[in-house]
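Lecture 7 notes: from sequence to structure.

We start with a single chain of 380 residues. Read the sequence below before looking at the structure.
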Amino acid sequence: MTKTKEINETRRSFLKGGGALAVAGAGVATLATPAVVTAQAPIVLRMQSSWTSGEIFQEMARQYVERVEAMSGGRLRIELLPAGAVVGAFQVMEATSDGILDACHQVPVYWYGLHAGASLFGTGPVWGGSATNLLSWIHRGGGQELYDELVHDILRLNVVGFFGFPMPAQPFGWFKNPVNTVADVNGLRYRTVGLAADLMQQMGMSVTQLPGGEIVPAMERGVIDAFEFNNPSADRRFGAQDVAKNYMLSSYHQASECFEINFNRDVWEDLDPDLQAILKYGVDASATSNTALALDQYSTDLAALRDEHGVTLLRTPSEVLARQIEAWDALIPNLEQDDFIRRAMDSQRAWTERTVFYQLMNDPDYKLAYDHYFPGRLPF
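Now the structure, written as tokens:
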């Protein structure tokens, strides 16, 4: 039995039994005596993330926890655990479904092994939109309904899930030698995850899927030649700059990823509606704070990688980006043989065609303005 169930069943027993009458009777018998109110114990949820305690993503998970606790007035408390505290980083979805955990904080690509469709909610083909566009599709374009179908109807997982923090596009990664042409990546042993692994294999790489904490040791042992993880802050914290000095930004392999926050469905349904609302909309609140933290810290750490650690910052060549799109084109027909994946991709394409047309027509050339006020700062 989960902690939530124990607390709620105790509360129900109290109200259904003589507890409520006893309180009422006590109120009548002590009209001249000040009432004593006993505070209700908070409901405690045990949440494990897929991030180590020192990762910036764990800070972002903590921002969610802090907002939930504040909005609930202390009625909800989330015990946030790092990766490995109960299960491995890639096992939190199944552990939450099984009731080993009450909740988890992760990304869908980490349970890609259960169904390739998981990657469509963060690391699938990039039709031309950003992670913000993907998150908007989840909220307004039918994505949440498709996600619920995958999780509940196809995989029969006992979870409820929500999405937050549309991440900046992930860099191509860390290389011992700069990548100037498509030929330079052929044969490289590379770390990535999810459908991005299939993408890089299509480009001629040999791919290994590893959690973040195992990347640098693998690089040191020569198991891999190059890797990506997520962002300048996370990469700097686990020491990417100690095993490679060429950091290539801009890529289509994971350009639209979002956090996924899941709850065991039994635990969720046992909560009062207002607490469910706090947990659900707390995801939206933390997405804003996560974005602000990311822009501040990612930019600070990128400058530190260049200025303090001697890292060469490079933008992935257009030739390589074009080859990534071609690789996606080669993968899509095989993926679409799965009925769910085909329907989800059709939904994404229809959404992106309409919404990104508006964005590209409407957005000004921000680079033009940046170059005007900060001339010479950009290397391209």
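The first helix runs from residue 3 to 16. Keep this in mind for problem set 3.
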